[in-house]
Structure formats: C-alpha cells, structure tokens
Design brief:
The complex is a heterodimer of chains A (116) and B (115).
Chain A lengths: L3 E2 L4 E5 L4 E3 L2 E2 L7 E6 L6 E6 L5 E3 L5 E5 L4 E6 L8 E10 L5 E5 L3 E6 L1
Parallel strand pairs in A: 2-12
Antiparallel strand pairs in A: 1-4, 3-9, 5-6, 5-10, 7-8, 8-9, 10-11, 10-12
Chain B lengths: L3 E4 L2 E4 L5 E7 L5 E8 L3 E8 L6 E2 L6 E5 L5 E5 L8 E8 L4 H4 L2 E2 L3 E5 L1
Parallel strand pairs in B: 2-11
Antiparallel strand pairs in B: 1-3, 3-8, 4-5, 4-9, 5-6, 7-8, 9-10, 9-11
Classes of the chains: A mainly beta (116), B mainly beta (115).
C-alpha cells in the first residue's frame, strides 16, 4: 500500500541548532508533497509545498525542503531553529485512494521541542 | 474570516450515543475531507467528497457516515460511539484538481471523548 513515513518521532534541539526532518513515501508516479505544522492547540498550517520545478522549495518562517525523486524523499530543513518552532510537523503526499482519486496521506508526525 | 468552520469544538459522549460533527467552508472549494488525529499516528482519512453529490471511503471509515449536504457543508456522523473513536477530528477543503498545487485548508478541529 502507498504510505508516507516520518522516521523521527520526537526531536529535541537547542535554539540555533540546525534541523532536518525526514520524510519518505512509497509511490513511483508523480506526486505533490507538503509539509504542515501544528502548533500546540492549533490546527494544521501549510509550511511549504512541492509540485514541479526546482526540487528545493522554500516555505514560511525560514523552512525549506528538498525533493529527491530517486530516494522518494522530501526532507524538511531549517538552518537555525527558534523556541517558537516548537510544534508537531507532518509530511503529506497526495496519493491515490482505492477509488482512483487522490487525497492527502499524512506521515505519523514529528514532535519538535526547542529548548531555550 | 474565510476558511473552514467546525462545530462543536469539544464533545463528550457516552458509549453508544450518536452525534454529528458539522463542517462548513466558504471558499467555494469542490472537495472536502474528514480526518482523525491520534497520537503517534498522524492524520488518517475517514471519508472525503471530491465534489458535491459524491462521497468516498478513506483509510478508516468504519463506524462513520458522511453527508455532503451542499457545496459548503460536509458532516460526519457517529451512529453508535465507541471509546476507540476518541480522537481529534479535522475537516479540510480544497479546490479539487487545483488542490494538488495548493494544499488543503483545515478547520480548527473537534476534540471528541467517548467514555
């Protein structure tokens, strides 16, 4: 079955440290890829997205992600994290459902805790 | 503010009770979705509606029913609630084909506890 995997479940960093969160998916065709962020007690917000073109995409708040097609990966990066980046991060891919239509399939999420 | 509105925000049910979660969007989106969020499992798709008049099962549809009342509204019904349905439920909408590019807009969620 098509799936999305996030290997880092809980990451703890100090402020100013660099961040990289992994995301892999299992589907050999064309995909659109997303990273969402959920701050404590809030709903999901779109960080960035990739659908074509430059595989290095930049999003809000200094985040970026690189699509590597050969590795089926879409890793999220930030050079220097802040305490305010403490949140849960979800990778999502628009995969085909059994009905033949696409819908966003999410990874299990990575909880990022940034210590002052 | 434009967006996706969910009601209620919180609900406690007893096992066996029924309830309907309401969702409405004012962005003229074609597609709407219901997800549940459980710790360590991310968001899992329950049902979705690609357009008005159509609904399809997602990854975890058992124990739920949906109604796409019109283009704006997409409700989720629990006919006989079970403790395993304790979760946070999110409604989302998208432009349909254009959603491949722009992503989904999510509501603020309904926290449901079944005791």
């Amino acid at each position: 079955a098509q799936s999305v995997s996030q290997h880092n479940h809980h990451v703890i960093l100090s402020e100013a440290a660099s961040l990289e969160l992994g995301c892999n998916y299992s589907y050999g065709g064309t995909v659109n890829l997303f990273w969402y962020v959920q701050y404590p007690g809030q709903h999901l917000q779109l960080l960035l997205k990739y659908f074509s073109g430059d595989p290095l995409v930049k999003g809000i708040k200094g985040f970026e992600a690189e699509f590597i097609k050969s590795k089926f990966s879409f890793n999220l990066r930030k050079p220097s994290v802040q305490w305010s980046d403490t949140a849960e991060y979800f990778c999502a891919v628009n995969l085909y459902m059994d009905t033949g239509r696409r819908a966003l399939t999410f990874g299990s999420g990575t909880r990022l805790q940034v210590q002052p | 503010n434009a967006g996706v509105t969910q009601t209620p925000k919180f609900q406690v049910l007893k096992t066996g009770q029924s309830m309907t979660l309401q969702c409405a969007q004012d962005m003229n989106h074609n597609s709407m979705y219901w997800y549940r969020q459980d710790p360590g499992m991310g968001l899992r798709l329950i049902y979705y509606s690609a357009s008005e008049g159509t609904t399809d099962k997602g990854e975890v549809p058992n124990g739920y029913n949906v109604s796409r009342l019109n283009k704006r509204e997409f409700s989720l019904r629990l006919e006989s609630a079970a403790p395993s349905q304790t979760s946070v439920y999110f409604c989302a909408s998208s432009n349909g084909r254009q959603s491949d590019n722009y992503g989904y807009t999510f509501g603020s969620g309904t926290r449901l506890t079944v005791v």
